[in-house]
Amino acid sequence: MNWLNQLATRLGVMRIEVLLVTGLLGFLLAGVGLNLAGDAVAKKELFERAEAEMFMGEESDSALTAEQRLYDESLKESGNDVRRADLPRKKLNFNTATEADLEALPDIGDLLANRLIRFRAFKGGKIRALEELLEVKGITQERFERLKLYLTVE
Questions:
Q1: Residue 151's beta-bridge partner residues?
Q2: Are 76 and 134 in contact (CB under 8 A)?
Q3: What is the DSSP string of 17-77?
Q4: Residue 79: helix, strand or coil by DSSP?
Q5: pLDDT in tens, 62-91
Q6: Engineered SS bond to 82: which of 78, 99, 120, 149, CB 3.0-4.6 Å?
Q7: In this predicted structure, what is the pLDDT of residue 81?
Q8: Which residues of 120-148 are buried (b: 16+ CB within 10 A; e: fewer)?
Q9: Tell me, what DSSP letter sits at residue 134?
Q10: Beta-carbon contacts of residue 136 (< 8 Å; ≥ 6 apart)
């Protein structure tokens, strides 16, 4: 406390005033530190959210609607036999499938195939259960039930 008395004497103030100013500066620095830590947490959450939305697709729902319409039209034109030769004879392993393999499946176009590949990359290169595909934008329960017939996870 000798340094405190020397500082008070040099500044020409009382010792209690130096203690008060020191305490206030301490609280100010603590507040700045907490504010910076809060910003870091907020930025981390934003990055995590952006990373999670990466596979959700940037394209609008109208693009998905247009893709579905084109697919439906191709089914009508071919009499429901579209891409039957391209369909896998055995179930396709989702964890090793290429984008072209996924596009060959019924009800999956290039946008959705790309989104599925990005989703798999987001999950670390593989998924553990097919039910995880329901997290992908554009995979409804009905579409998932149809895809289950062609996909497996190994």
A1: 92
A2: no
A3: HHHHHHHHHHHHHHHHHHHHHHHHHHHHHHHHHHHHHGGG-SS-HHHHHHHHHHHHHHHHH
A4: coil
A5: 666 666 677 677 666 665 544 444 544 678
A6: 78
A7: 46
A8: bebeeeebeeeebbeebbbbeeebbeebe
A9: G
A10: 55, 56, 112, 115, 116, 119
Q: What tens-digit pLDDT sequence spans the chain (154 residues)?
A: 688 788 888 888 888 888 899 899 999 999 898 888 877 777 888 777 777 666 665 555 566 666 667 767 766 666 554 444 454 467 889 999 999 999 888 888 888 888 999 999 888 888 999 999 888 888 889 889 988 889 999 8
Amino acid at 103: E
CA angle, 89 as apex, 83 and 90 as ends, to 5°? Answer: 130
| Lookup: tokens for 68 | 């579905």
pTM value is 0.50
Residue whose structure tokens are 């009499």 = 79
CB 94 within 8 A of CB 120: yes
Tokens of 59: 């394209």
